[in-house]
Amino acid sequence: MANPGDLRICKKGHYYNPEKYSECPTCKKNGGETAGSAEMRRVVRGYHVPEDGNEDVTVAEAVKKIGFQPIAGWLVCVDGEGKGKDYKILYGRNFIGRDRSMDICIQGDKTISRVNHASISYDDKAKKYYYSPEIGRSIDYINGNPVFETVELHNRDCIEIGSMKLVFAPLCGDNFRWEDWNEE
Questions:
Q1: CA 66 to each of CA 8, 136, 180: distance values in angstroms, whole numbers, following the listed order
Q2: How far apart, in whole angstroms, are the C-alpha atoms of residue 60 and residue 33?
Q3: Distance CA 151, CA 132 (A)
Q4: pTM of the shown model
Q5: What is the per-residue pLDDT across 32-82, written as a single tens digit (0 to 9) for each?
Q6: In terms of CB atoms within 10 Å, which of 21, 90, 114, 166 comes out highest?
């Protein structure tokens, strides 16, 4: 995902990532919905456009302290159409879906919901990762067990989402935090 400061806003108030789109995808696709529309929220991925028109984008507390959007870990596909592909997990909440607007975009598998199928979150204060089912129709599994509510993730957990198997690989935790990193 682009850093919040890298997002552009079109004339109708929609935010979009110029690295992925040459023009506003909301206006192009839907004839220009209003800034409060569901389509705009999907493109912005959780960043809320205030009613007062203020273009400041909300960022996680840890991201504000560090000064950039750091990577916290990865998902690596070990079985399925994307075998060998990796997906970055960033600080905070990462939404999973097929749509390019998702933080973790898994394309090609129609058993994964287009938007907000599930989420993976890194909680910097607790130094823990969590997997949450969202609005996906399919049942996801972690280490062979069905997931119906938020569960904590651990190193090398196997997540079955759609027809794919993904292994979780954390970077941050007890042994590494971006806030503590010293270049010396």
A1: 22, 32, 10
A2: 27
A3: 7
A4: 0.67
A5: 443 344 433 333 444 333 444 445 556 667 677 777 788 999 999 999 988
A6: 166
